[in-house]
Amino acid sequence: MERLLRRWRSFSGPLLSRCPPSQPPLCRAYHHPPGRVKRLALSRFFQPQNLREDQVVGLESRVSELTCKSHRLMLQTGLIHPAGPGCYHYLPFTVRAMEKLIRMIDQEMQAIGGQKLDMPSLCSAKLWRATGRWQLMGKELFQLQDRHNKEYCLGPTHEEAITSLMASQKTLSYRQLPHLLYQVTRKFRDEPRPRFGLLRGREFYMKDMYTFDCSAEAAHQTYDLVCDAYGRLFDRLGLRFVRVQAAVGSIGGTMSHEFHLPLNIGEDTLTACSNCGFTANVETLDPKQPNCPVCQGKLAETKGVEVGHTFYLGTKYSSVFNTEFINAQGKPSLVEMGCYGLGVTRILAAAIEVLSTEECIRWPRLLAPYQVCLIPPKKGSKEEMAIEPMETLYDNIAEALPQLQGEILLDDRTHLTIGNRLKDAKKLGYPFVVIAGKRALEQPCHFEVWCQNTEEVVFLPKQGLLDLLRKVQVV
Ligand code: ATP
Ligand code: MG
């Protein structure tokens, strides 16, 4: 420790002393004079850009698996950077979008009584052997040993961990149930074919919820409650989804549904009956039976990307760990469980895949990393005089609309033309891009506003712009 401290002092000393005493280091980093609005300047962002097309393709482990649109766009715009097969650095813009998505997930889960916790990624092999999944999951588990030769895996999902945690609560009463516990953490799976960027990684973020009820009936009600919350989340994101009957796979249980975004690059085939509304993942149907099992109607197939999965588990896990509660008769009884996953990083990428054009990212409005990008004119151009009004506009928006503070970016790379910076802004998909061009020098001054989600371009005076931005929702 002492050694570390000494090294830190000798490292940090010269770094800090480079800042003149009149300018504390924090203000320099945020690029704003003390006491004034904090302006976020694009030139200061860490955002590796402009990976060329051939480099993007070269990053794929197998050339035959050409990448998809969201993967390509996310690499080109510096949203992610490859770190190894199926592993990515999530760069600052992505982290902002992800934080927004997680906030929305928190809102929906907590609205139905969900409580957030956080479990270790290092999961003991003992628990996984108890359920037989150490063997069952096989090579998909990242396995490791500690210095005492104790075996672990890096958690691909947490049914064992949470069920044994609940089993340790010996005095759990029926009065306390249901419990809906969830976390948003990294999951690790040694996927045989990691591909399509964040759509199928070997390390990714998942929201996983586990529910504990006193009866099968109550557990089914909880199941419906969580499915409805998933529906509300996708509605708020503006993403059309389909919910289908699904296979239980290695998680197990007796009933399961998947939530899919319809996409041609999807690895799942879904089927729907236009007659009775029956929907299923084809893997749950008998291939010899071409018609709808409910009404014998005709089935139509589409491809989908699975973004969520719900399971009714019954007592599959609670019976292994003896996870009991004290029922109304004062007797111990096994808890009825459900588990519910949402692929956080996969939802981000799948949303980009659904909404974007080949050239430009489009975000679900609420997830855009920044809502507004301001582009002042180029230094040395005829419109140079409008640079200052643009900076004032930044402060005016931030002061008049406090909800947008931290959501406005100033593209201060004024050595570049407006056209070049607009191209970047369109590619990154800020919902609103505001340009100070020729008309910014008129009286009254007008700004050019690109409303990217509606594909409109309008010229507005300052007040008109404030009125437009006042309606922007943020999470
Ligand atoms: P898939 O069939 O796509 O491999 P899965 O059925 O194995 O997924 P679940 O165990 O149901 O996945 O995990 C819950 C959610 O986690 C999935 O619905 C998906 O959104 C997300 N997810 C699963 N695997 C990955 C992955 N490799 N990369 C990114 N997200 C994933
Ligand atoms: Mg699944």
From TrEMBL:
Q: What is its EC number?
A: 6.1.1.15
Q: What Pfam families does UniProt report for this protein, alphabetically?
A: HGTP_anticodon, tRNA-synt_2b
As one GO molecular function, the record gives: ATP binding
**Aminoacyl-transfer RNA synthetases class-II family profile domain mapped to chain residues:** 99-369
Query: Could you mention a single GO BP entry for this protein?
Result: prolyl-tRNA aminoacylation
Q: Which UniProt keywords apply?
A: Aminoacyl-tRNA synthetase, ATP-binding, Ligase, Mitochondrion, Nucleotide-binding, Protein biosynthesis, Transit peptide
- Kindly indicate where the leader peptide sits in this chain: none
Q: Which residues cross the membrane?
A: none
Q: Where in the cell is it found?
A: Mitochondrion matrix
What reaction does this catalyse?
tRNA(Pro) + L-proline + ATP = L-prolyl-tRNA(Pro) + AMP + diphosphate
What GO cellular component is one of the record's annotations? mitochondrial matrix
Q: Which enzyme type, at the first EC level?
A: ligase
Chief subcellular location equals mitochondrion
Instruction: Report whether Aminoacyl-tRNA synthetase shows up as a keyword of the record.
Output: yes
Physiological role: Mitochondrial aminoacyl-tRNA synthetase that catalyzes the specific attachment of the proline amino acid (aa) to the homologous transfer RNA (tRNA), further participating in protein synthesis. The reaction occurs in a two steps: proline is first activated by ATP to form Pro-AMP and then transferred to the acceptor end of tRNA(Pro).
The family classification in the record reads: Belongs to the class-II aminoacyl-tRNA synthetase family.
Q: What is this protein called?
A: Probable proline--tRNA ligase, mitochondrial
Native species: Sarcophilus harrisii
